[in-house]
Amino acid sequence: MSTIPTSVTEDQFDEHIRLLLSTAKRGYVCQIPLVKVFNDILYRLHTGCQWAHLPTAPARTDPEKKRLAGKRSTIISRTWSADGSLQQVWEQSIQTICKDLDVLRLNLDGSHTLAEKGGESVAYPHRKRAKTSNLLPITDAQGDVLASTGGAAGNPHDAFDLKPHLQAAFKHIKHLGLTFAGAYFNADSAFDTLEARKVCFNHQVIPNICENKRNRKATKRGRKHLFNPTLYKQRSTSERSFAWIDKFRALLIHYDGKDVNFLGAHHLAFALINLRHLFARKG
Q1: 0.85 exceeded by the pTM?
Q2: What is the residue-averaged pLDDT of the chain?
Q3: Angstrom distance (rounded) from CA 237 to CA 204
Q4: Are residues 131 and 114 in contact, defined by beta-carbon separation less than 8 angstroms?
Q5: Coil, strand or helix at 255
Q6: Which of 61, 77, 198, 274 has fewest C-beta within 10 Å?
Q7: pLDDT interval class at 133 (50, 70, 90)
Q8: Domains of the chain: which residue ranges?
Q9: What is the four-CA torsion angle of 238, 99, 35, 252, rounded to 10 degrees?
Q10: Which of 54, 20, 53, 52 is CA-nearest to residue 37?
Q11: Which residues pair with 207 in a beta bridge?
Q12: Among candidate residues 282, 277, 232, 242, the one with its CA nearest the CA of residue 99
């Protein structure tokens, strides 16, 4: 199993990332090489340090230069999040490894992130005893992240507005050129809704969802829902993907006030997870 990369070489940056990032067409142009700026952003994402404490070489002895270096990286990171550059990096990572993907088994699960300072799409779920935001990534059988919902407040249950989220996720995967007709879709009982099953059938996906008995007041009539417990156990790959995401400590707590910055950081983490084997072979 390859280690999730927390920095990239110049060759890796030029081949897989550089052309997907926006650059200034007029006005100020960053004098620091973009690969250095990108690795600074990854360093902050991995360690969770403050932007002003990035280990930028010219800033180690001058506090003012250190502050300006952190401010520069903050602005560039937020710009790449807002204009969709980091999302493009993630989407391109999926297309880069498309031949190695196992899309015959898809896994869905939710990931709550503490948001102590509030922000967009943040709420207080009593079961978590804290303010949280929620993401619902979809992974393949190997843990590669293929789709994800946008940020959602943590107070509704995981199946809240699940239908549009699933529809958007499946359309996103199809937009990337991946064929998953006939795939099994693993999800736990929190996602057991009639609408979710209908969306799966409409996209020719077989819902392998653990039945939530609390949804029924009486025994279901007719044929039981298909459920394969052996395939369902493979849903644990989602938990492994969440563990890989948690390697990036800046994502453990939601400090970004705007959803776009929070999602941009996750898109970057998703891309590194997807490219882990490729970067390990060339590293």
Answers
A1: yes
A2: 85
A3: 22
A4: yes
A5: coil
A6: 61
A7: confident
A8: 101-256
A9: 0
A10: 54
A11: 185
A12: 277
* Candidates 2.60.40, 3.30.420, 2.60.120, 3.30.930; CATH matching 101-256: 3.30.420
- Give the rounded distance of the alpha carbon of 200 from its chain centre: 21
Q: Residue 58 — φ and ψ, nearest 5°?
A: -70, -15
> What's the confidence (pLDDT) of residue 1?
46
Structure tokens at 77: 């990171």
Closest CA to 137 of 45, 235, 48: 235
Which string of b and e fits 138-174 if b means at least 16 CB within 10 Å? Answer: bbbbbbbbbbbbebbbbbeebbeebeebbeebbebbe
Paired sense of beta strands 184-187 and 105-108, if any: parallel
Structure tokens at 155: 């107070």
Amino acid of residue 274: N
Give the Cα separation of 113 and 87 in Å (integer): 20
